[in-house]
Amino acid sequence: MKNIVLFGPPGAGKGTQAEVLKEKYQLVHISTGDVFRFNIKNETELGMLAKSYMDKGHLVPDEVTINMLNAEVEKNADANGFIFDGFPRTEAQATALAKLMEEKNSQINAMVALEVDDEVLVGRLLERGKSSGRADDANEEVIRERIAEYYRKTDILKKFYQAQDKYYGVDGVGSIEEITDRLSAVIDTI
């Protein structure tokens, strides 16, 4: 079983690569954002609990998020592995995810981070903003703050996974196929 935490700043291509990798390796892609939206839309007990925090402008507690992820893992108990996208974001979440996987007699095998120069990210996001209609992709100032926030929050996780020899940085610039080849070279070794 291969369990990967896929990381990268906004605009690095995580969503695109997750789709390719899930097909190539027959993994289940768990996007925290998608899981939240699904649970809220379908008014599950966890979704309503999460929404009660979000409606007040609060972060959803880690325990609620982990319980949602656990439900996703349980739904896919026969999977070859998982790609976690958007989680963990803190060391406490990484520890909780490790515990969750341990309870399933598994583990996180690697954190693979797409590394892309900030100016390339800004350009990609502004371009995506033209076609996606996403307001957070249309304002350069907001984009730069999102990128800065990513680095502020995730540097701790990089160190967390480096300490376990599970961190792999991959050049995220090039064609989709070139980036997939680089990611595959890492995944094939774990």
List its traits.
alpha/beta, Rossmann fold, five-stranded parallel beta sheet, globular, nucleotide-binding, transferase, Adenylat/UMP-CMP_kin, Adenylat_kinase_CS
What does this molecule look like?
The chain contains eight helices and five strands, in the order E-H-E-H-H-H-E-H-E-H-H-E-H. By secondary structure, the chain is an alpha/beta fold. It has one domain (2-187): P-loop containing nucleotide triphosphate hydrolases (Rossmann fold, 3-Layer(aba) Sandwich). Strands 2-3-1-4-5 form a five-stranded parallel sheet, sandwiched between helices. Helix 1 (14-25) crosses helix 8 (176-187), helix 2 packs across helix 3 and helix 6 (118-132) packs across helix 7 (140-162). The mean pLDDT is 92.
Stretches where pLDDT is under 50 for at least 5 consecutive residues are: none
Considering DSSP H and I runs of 4 or more, what fraction of the residues is helical? 55-70%
CATH fold name, please?
Answer: Rossmann fold
Which CATH C-level class is it? Alpha Beta
The total domain count is 1
- The neighbouring-strand order within the major sheet is 2-3-1-4-5
Number of helices: 8
The share of residues in extended strands comes to 5-15%
N-end to C-end Cα span? 10 Å
The beta-strand count equals 5
Q: SSE order in H/E notation?
A: EHEHHHEHEHHEH
Largest sheet geometry: 5 strands, parallel
What would you call the structural class?
Answer: alpha/beta
CATH superfamily membership, which one? Answer: P-loop containing nucleotide triphosphate hydrolases
